[in-house]
Structures are given as structure tokens and as C-alpha cells.
Prior knowledge:
The protein is of the alpha/beta class. The chain has 2 domains: about 30-180 and about 285-414, Phosphoglycerate mutase-like (Rossmann fold, 3-Layer(aba) Sandwich); about 180-280, no CATH class. The protein is built from 14 helices and 7 strands. It has helices spanning about 5-25, 70-85, 110-120, 150-155, 185-190, 195-210, 220-225, 230-245, 255, 260-280, 290-315, 335-350, 390-395, 400-410, and strands at about 30-40, 100-105, 160-165, 325-330, 360-370, 370-380, 380-385. It has a 7-stranded mixed beta sheet. Helix 6 (about 195-210) packs antiparallel against helix 10 (about 260-280). It is globular.
Amino acid sequence: MLFNKKGISILILFCLCIKSLLKEVQSDEKLLFVLEHFRHGARGAYKSFNYNTWRDILNEEWKGAGELTPIGMRQHYLLGTSIRNKYKNFISNEFDPNEIFVISSDVNRTLISAYSNLLGIFHNNNANINNKGFINNNNYSDIINDYLLNEKEQLQYMFPIHIYKGEDLRYQLYRTEICPGFQKFIDKIAESEGMKQILKDVFEKTNNNFGRYLEKYIDQKIIDNKDYNGYFKVIKTICDTFIADYFDNRKIDDISKTGINLEEFNEHCLNVSLITAYYSYYGNPVEKSVEFGISPTFRDIFDYMDKRIELDKKNIPDKIIPSSPKFVIISGHDVSLAAFDLFFENKFNIKFERADYANNQIFELWKKDGKYYFRYLINLETKGEFEYYDFKEKVLKDLYTDEEIKKICLEENY
């Protein structure tokens, strides 16, 4: 025999000790804070919406311009259940306004997305639903109906959502009606050689692949004169409308009857939307408008995290107090996510994924082996981890102060 009874007992004891030590090492990693930043779910068309006919440029009828659709609500409900499954040991089973702080732009689709997301987090909070693959694609399966709430149930779940206003000069700095000074960034980008080449490529690719189907929408003078800017203004409106229609599983007869391959056109339009939300605002390669756009949010993230670190150093890392939430949710738009996507790609070489409907970014604060770490996730997948104080120092060097932002927005001398 290789081992006698005594030897076996010692071996078992040794294995138990190793198991205990491994468990102790693993338990030393502790999550302290989470901020989730997401885009609203699928919506109706709005850039070409006609309030006289209640139809868009492709002749599809909607109940309102840019409103969140039932599919958009389902997306965020499912995203919420994914958040529940991921953070079930971090957040409470019942909503606590001191533990979770929710903020949204003052737009119906972002507000309803936030509500739908919270319903997913706190309704059926023990459900282990496999949502991957539905949230960010055109899968209209009815299996998720098993997890939807009826009207009576919905009234049992009411969540406080805070609205950030434009006059606060925060979070929506890319909106020139709120921050007129941002137009200077946009003008500079529009005149760059990189942007001119992008628009030229869109013109040529659209014409080569889909031009004959779009003759009724594109003025021939624009095509003949190779007016790339004018062409892009039209095609981005058509594409934005088409994506809304296509995602809502509409037949879009006005285009499909011409023989156009809808899947190919949808992919093309998604790339046009990438240009619209990313490069038109932030440049290719990126301009300082990226740092401008993320500055207020990143400063808030660091403030939240620093407060949770203070509590941890006092040995009360799980304490719930109103001034220091454990979990923050920001319900925003593709343009607000785009600034972070481009910043992390440019600064930390993290490849982004286009911010389609219901895409999210997550910023986590961890403590491991006595040190604090910042973790960045896209659609619930970890993309990068950094030592917190080193990361914070590097990022703060690139950010605008609140005073600088105010001067730029108000077009004061700076």
C-alpha cells in the first residue's frame, strides 16, 4: 500500500488545509462599489418623425417620436436580471434608495429604460435567466414573456430616479443647445482630413451597394456634386430610422419591395450610426472632446469610489449611507457611452463595442490583498483592471475641471 491509515488521514488533513487557505485567499477579494452606465433600449424613429402623419421617412407608423418600444423595455428588463445574477451577493434583494442611486437624462426612453432595468434587478431576483444573446441582437423570442410583469405587479415596484438637467452642464456636454461651446469641437472635427475621408467612404459604399434603392430619398444634385456632408446628413437620418424599424421587426415595405437585402443594409446603417455617435462628436483619431465629454462623470465616479474606500478603511465597507451609495446607475445615450469607449481605446488600448441598444459599461472598485483596483467592463465582460490610485492619477491629468467646462460651454474666453 502506498499510504497506511495514518498517512491517508494526514493527506486528507493536508488537503483540507490547502482548501481552507485557498478559500481565505479568494475571500480576500472584495467588491466595494459599482457604477453602471447604459444606453436606452430599442426605440421608435424620431429623426424623421412626422407629427402630422405619425409616420417616419420609411412610412412606418409610431405612437411617438423616439419612444422606448416594448422590445426596448424587454431588453432592459433582461439586462437587469443579468445585473441581479452578477451582483446578487453585493446588492440587497429589496430596493434601498440609500444603497442604489439612479440618474437619467430627461428623456422618456432613458427614464423608462431605467425603470425596466430596475424591474429586472428586483423582480424575480432569484431567477437565473440566461440573457446573453438577446439583449444586443434582433432575437424576438417570446420566452422572455415568462418574466414580464403585468400592470398590477408593476405598481408594486416604484423606484426614485433622479433627472440631470441640461443647465447643470453635466453628462450631456455633447448637446450644443446645452453646451454651445461644444460646437467648436464639432466644427474642428468636421474639417479634419480623417472625417472627410470617412464621409467619402460612406458616400462611395452606400452608392455602390444601395444607391439604386435610395434614389427617392437622395437628391441627385447631392450625388452629382459629391457633396459628402450633404449626403451623410440624409443617409444618417434614413439609417437611424431604418435601425429603429428593423429592430422592431417591421417589414419596411418601402425599402424591401425594391429588393434590397435588409440585413446587409442594417449592418451598413449600424456602421453609419457608429460614425454619427462616435466620430462626428469625438473625431477619428480622437480629439480633446472625448476628455471633455467624460470629465464630469469620471470625477463623480472617483468621488463615489473614494467615499467607499474611506468606509472600508474604517472597517465598515458594507455600510449603507445616503451620501455614499454602493451602486449607481446612469441611464444615457450612445453618444455618452461613445466618449468612454473612445477614451479607453485611445488611453488604454481597450477595443470597444459599438453602443447599440441597451449596451452597458460598468466601473467597479475592488479591494485585493490590501490594495484597491479599478475594473472596467463592457456588456458585463471585464476589459481591463488597473491599480486604483495609479489609474485615477493618469485619468485626472486628462480631465477638464468644472470651471473649464463652464467656460467652454458658455463660450467664455479660455
